[in-house]
Amino acid sequence: MSSAGSTTMSRSTETVVMQTLSALSIMASVPPLALHWKNRNFPAGSLVGWYILLSLFNIINAFIWPTDDLDNWWDGVGLCDIQVKLLVASYVAVPGCLVCIFRSLACVLDTSRTTLVPSKRQRWRNRVVETMFCVVIPIVAALLHMIYQGNRYFIFAISGCVSGLDESWVSLALGYIWPLVIFLIAGYYCGLVLLRLRRYRNQFNEIIRAANSGLSKSRFLRLFFLSFVMVIAITPVQIYVVYVQIEASLPWHAFSFSNIHGGGHLWSQITKVPTQGKVFYDRWIPIAAGFMTFVFFGCGKDASRIYRAALRPFGLDRCFSPIQTSSTGSFPRDGSGSTSSRAQLISGNKNQKAPQDLYHASRISDHGYNDVEKGVSPSTSGSSGQSSKKGWLKTHLTWFGRSFPARREAMRSAPHLAIPSNTISTNAWAGTSTTMSRDSIEIELMPPRTDLIRVKQVIRQEREMQV
């Protein structure tokens, strides 16, 4: 036996690499699949499920036909009959899932049709569209394959079962043109999402919050970018497939159903093809898609909850510590709620001996420039007037600088301010600085006009910078 034949008859490195990566891709795809199933995202879950199935085929076929030893090959009867139909279905199911994903994202950004609660008709319409692209069209494609099926199937070394096509125009019209057409439809909805993202980029958070779609900003963007990468990467491959199939089948012969499916004709023919240790090119697509899915959906806080739940029976849930998140959740909130809460906490102090003008100064409106009149900071009971001014300026410089972590920290500690040991409330317009403690309230008059004018100028400048 020659060295070339010896190489062909042994398991190639590419075979081992493909099997290993396929197994890792399946493992990496399980958490995103569970996450989409939990969120009832049928198109995204179907997309991940199809890629898991294709990766599983890679592992099985490489074990059954690992080398070019054609004489000892199993003919694959039964297994390849099923695999070929599932492969044909997957060719249109993957772009169909992407169409549904992009369509749902485009509907979220459709401000002209935003409703508080989707109507029953809208829900049924979405279900029909998703079922049609993810289930019905793939089944129809698998059934139509029997019409233009040139032979029973091909068996490639390592790659396994591959569908056969009749060299006629019917194969183009019913077969390999439709994956490209559906990818172009997905590309249209992808462009629509990009257009609306650009148009509503300033109101994006508000639109996502009001859409009542169950998507957070992070989940929306991750789902969009994952689908966007798949469309950009696979559409050129589909164009290449159509070109190669047309070039290989020309010149087309006249289509005859009886010649293909008649007794003793091509219908029952099984063709075995050696590959010299090479893997069929499209077998790498589900592997790459599985890892991409994990990158976008397997590393977030939602996935970490799944990991902890799975490892909790073994006592290993601490390996994935809970991710600390702020109370703002997925969307940033405006400062009105926190300002109102803090004003109410200060005005609700047990010390009711404060003068009436100071009481009104502590109950400041959420809207307007009155937010700058109130400073809240802890201090000692013996602090001087100069330290009070520094604390006031520091508080408001932090506020206008939008130090959100500081504001979140203040919100977390807000319940402890119900009976503060020391609270400083400064009313710049009244020209007084009031120090309130548990036992006493001291009122000290500030210099009559100079400091008042200076404070007004500082506040006015800060307001102009903010605008």
Structure description:
Belongs to the G-protein coupled receptor 4 family. The chain has 467 residues and is mostly helical. The protein contains 17 helices and six strands. The chain has a domain at 13-295: Up-down Bundle (Rhopdopsin 7-helix transmembrane proteins). It has helices at residues 3-8, 13-38, 42-64, 79-108, 120-144, 169-176, 178-199, 204-210, 217-249, 257-261, 285-297, 301-311, 336-347, 356-362, 385-400, 404-412, 450-466, and strands at 153-156, 160-162, 270-273, 422-427, 432-437, 441-445. It has a three-stranded mixed beta sheet. It has a three-stranded antiparallel beta sheet with strand order 4-5-6, with helices on both faces. A hairpin with a 3-residue loop joins strand 5 and strand 6 (441-445). Helix 4 runs parallel beside helix 7 and helix 4 packs across helix 9.
Labels describing this entry:
467 residues, mainly alpha, Rhopdopsin 7-helix transmembrane proteins, three-stranded antiparallel sheet
List the helices and strands and how they pair.
Elements lengths: L2 H6 L4 H26 L3 H23 L14 H30 L11 H25 L8 E4 L3 E3 L6 H8 L1 H22 L4 H7 L6 H33 L7 H5 L8 E4 L11 H13 L3 H11 L24 H12 L8 H7 L22 H16 L3 H9 L9 E6 L4 E6 L3 E5 L4 H17 L1
Parallel strand pairs: 1-3
Antiparallel strand pairs: 1-2, 4-5, 5-6
Question: Outline of this structure?
Answer:
With 467 residues, this protein is mainly α. It has a domain at 13-295: Up-down Bundle (Rhopdopsin 7-helix transmembrane proteins).
Please compute the radius of gyration using only Cα atoms. 33 Å
Shape: globular
**SSE arrangement, N to C:** HHHHHEEHHHHHEHHHHHHEEEH
CATH domain topology of the domain at 13-295: Rhopdopsin 7-helix transmembrane proteins
pLDDT averaged over residues: 74
The portion of residues assigned to helices is 55-70%
Q: List the total number of helices.
A: 17
